[in-house]
Design a protein that fits this description.
Chain lengths: 224, 155
């Protein structure tokens, strides 16, 4: 054994963490080494000074404060919690609010940009023209499905003085009774003063109709 | 128990209250993650120490305790039968120990407090701190030795 015992050995001795053989050696050494005894006494005094610190009663409001904080946390938005998890640490309120504002603003800008891009690429206009009476389409609505057009559409638009004519495929059993027809509007556009947006050999018209009334929606598209 | 450990770790009441509150909120939030691999006490103490350390990092340095915190501490203890002289001595003693603890490196302070104040076993301390038994033994010993030196220097 070295001249003096290591501090870890003395501390373990105080905590009664030494094996029996080692304990015997330490006790023999302490009996003969005043320095190590003094050091052991110092360690014991330090340990006792901490042990003597008394238990302190927590503030009465601690429980209420915890409950209030948990309630407030419950009200935080899921996105905030998600951000917090992504960040891997708790974001403080002063950081979180501007961060959320920036994210929302970026989202809005992206949405508007995507919307404008889509409109431009489709180069289409969509407008509800009005209600119209159904003629041929209704009569042919019960025909079996076919790849070939199985109905012709002839509609009068209420309040207008022209007639739309086209053909399309009516699929029986569709809940919304939808038929896509291709309408040649070149003539109509020229004669009836519809907005002239360049050449449009055909215009796809989607006709949604209920029992008696057609709601006619133009979807003009540059796609063939 | 959480509040007491928080007080001893931080050395002042204001931080202790915040640390204890944050600990309970985290316990509530993450209770589903507790797998029972350690005791609940060990798990909660580990959270307490993590809360204290993150708070100290935010503050960049620990807020120093004040003598009025020592008096407030005595006001909160169970023994209210002290004479004025006894109270003065007790305040001085509490302040001396707290100041000494405050001067310890955090990993020594944690180990000494868990052993001598919370009376935990070496194995429990190893679980709380996430270190090996040998490290626990070393930190307790060196922490006590530093504490002894500081207290002797003061007296």
């Amino acid at each position: 054994m070295s001249r003096h015992l290591a501090i870890e050995v003395l501390s373990s001795y105080l905590d009664e963490k030494l094996s029996a053989p080692k304990l015997r050696l330490v006790e023999e050494h302490l009996a003969s080494c005043a320095d190590c005894r003094e050091r052991t006494d110092g360690l014991r005094a330090a340990s006792r000074s901490v042990k003597r610190l008394e238990q302190i009663a927590p503030p009465e409001t601690l429980g209420l404060d915890v409950q209030r904080t948990i309630r407030l946390e419950g009200r935080r938005s899921e996105s905030a919690m998600w951000l917090e998890q992504v960040a891997g640490r708790r974001l403080s309120q002063p950081v979180l609010v501007p961060l959320l504002a920036i994210v929302l603003a970026l989202g809005a800008i992206l949405y508007l940009f995507a919307f404008a891009l889509e409109q431009r690429s489709r180069r289409s206009t969509r407008m509800v023209v009005g209600s119209a009476s159904m003629s041929t389409a209704e009569r042919n609505g019960g025909n079996p499905p076919s790849d070939r057009p199985n109905s012709r559409l002839l509609t009068h638009i209420e309040g207008a003085d022209f007639v739309l004519e086209g053909e399309g495929l009516v699929t029986p059993g569709l809940a919304d009774k939808q038929v896509d027809v291709v309408v040649d509007l070149r003539k109509e556009a020229a004669e009836r003063g519809l907005p002239d947006e360049g050449p449009r050999p055909t215009t796809r018209a989607r006709v949604l109709f209920g029992a008696k009334v057609l709601d006619l929606v133009y979807e003009e598209s540059s796609a063939p | 128990m959480v509040f007491n450990l928080a007080w001893r770790l931080s050395g002042n009441r204001a931080d202790a209250e915040d640390i204890a509150q944050e600990t309970f909120v985290r316990v509530f939030r993450h209770l589903g993650r507790f797998k029972g691999q350690s005791s609940l006490k060990t798990w909660i103490f580990r959270i307490t120490i993590n809360c204290a350390n993150s708070r100290f990092r935010q503050q960049s340095r620990r807020r120093k305790g004040r003598i009025d915190d020592s008096e407030a501490e005595l006001e909160r203890t169970a023994d209210t039968r002290r004479t004025p002289e006894g109270k003065a001595v007790a305040v001085d003693l509490v302040d001396a120990v707290r100041t000494a603890l405050d001067r310890l490196p955090p990993h020594y302070r944690e180990a000494v407090l868990l052993r001598d104040f919370e009376d935990m076993t070496y194995e429990e301390i190893a679980a709380v701190l996430g270190v090996r038994l040998g490290t626990v033994r070393s930190r307790i010993a060196r922490g006590r030795d530093r504490l002894r030196a500081i207290l002797e220097e003061r007296s």
